[in-house]
Write a sequence for this structure.
């Protein structure tokens, strides 16, 4: 017989938004249960140095998430290493079924399942993630001062990242498999006017090359999509900017979504289209996608959940 656990507040997801929601939910005496999911700690667990977390000049991404988990646990959050397979939000209490077989029921739910960068799917890309391969220029661009770097993509994200990276890099090569960009025209104009950026049309990345000891990127091998000709481009950093995918599989057919699956929340709120259900962090945020903004939304979600519960006792 499967186990059933009830809580006033169920938090699904364990990145900065989820753990912060746990801290605030605990302080509100809601005795929250937090389900960590398949990647405890979220995207920060595959990030190395974090230099934009307030009060910390530098911290390793995985270490920061361990500290946040410990803080949530110490505050009183029950943290469970399970993965939610399905949810039923049609009635309160809401129900979530874990892959462990446990059924979780809750009077309010916060979804903080985050988002995942879209990757090329190369073995060498996986090898150098965090060691020269990144999907966040805002997070990691600072480490490539005076270096040659590569950006892969052709949409708004790619152009914005390329422009941002010119603050640090000596040269930015934008690799795109077509001969025109999908980004907004004003962004294209800025890109073409920037002397540090060189577009490379009709090419796609074949392999990322680098050193073993220490592990680091040294170049990328690219193929011309029409001729098949292979070229090697020297670089120290490779930024993949082919979009993000919100981890909204659990709720995409239940909650209102937009922009390719991001959960819609009310203005200046984390409230979703179902009363008592809240969403925070990268699951809703297609603009900033920063740890500190995710944590702020986790705080908001817990405070709003507390208010909802007090009004619906």
């Amino acid at each position: 017989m499967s186990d059933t656990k009830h809580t006033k507040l169920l938090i699904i997801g364990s990145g900065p938004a989820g753990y912060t929601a746990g801290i605030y939910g605990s302080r509100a005496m809601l005795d929250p249960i937090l389900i960590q999911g398949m990647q405890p700690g979220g995207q920060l667990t595959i990030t190395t140095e974090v230099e934009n977390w307030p009060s910390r000049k530098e911290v390793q991404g995985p270490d920061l998430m361990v500290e946040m988990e410990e803080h949530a646990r110490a505050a009183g959050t029950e943290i469970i290493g399970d993965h939610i397979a399905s949810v039923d939000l049609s009635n309160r209490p809401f129900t979530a079924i874990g892959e462990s077989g446990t059924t979780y029921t809750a009077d309010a739910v916060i979804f903080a399942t985050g988002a995942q960068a879209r990757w090329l799917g190369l073995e060498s890309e996986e090898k150098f993630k965090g060691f020269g391969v990144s999907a966040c220029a805002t997070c990691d661009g600072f480490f490539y001062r005076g270096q040659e770097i590569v950006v892969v993509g052709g949409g708004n994200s790619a152009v914005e990242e390329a422009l941002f990276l010119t603050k640090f890099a000596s040269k930015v090569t934008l690799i795109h498999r077509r001969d025109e960009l999908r980004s907004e025209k004003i962004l294209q104009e800025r890109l073409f006017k920037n002397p540090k950026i060189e577009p490379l049309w009709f090419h796609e990345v074949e392999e990322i090359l680098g050193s073993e000891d220490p592990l680091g990127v040294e170049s990328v091998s690219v193929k011309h999509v029409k001729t098949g000709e292979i070229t090697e481009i020297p670089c120290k950093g490779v930024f993949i900017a082919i979009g993000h995918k919100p981890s909204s599989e659990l709720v995409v057919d239940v909650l209102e979504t937009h922009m390719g699956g991001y959960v819609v929340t009310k203005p200046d709120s984390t409230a979703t289209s179902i009363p008592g259900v809240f969403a925070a962090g990268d699951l809703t945020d297609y603009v900033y996608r920063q740890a500190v903004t995710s944590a702020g939304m986790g705080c908001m979600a817990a405070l709003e959940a507390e208010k909802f519960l007090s009004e619906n006792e």
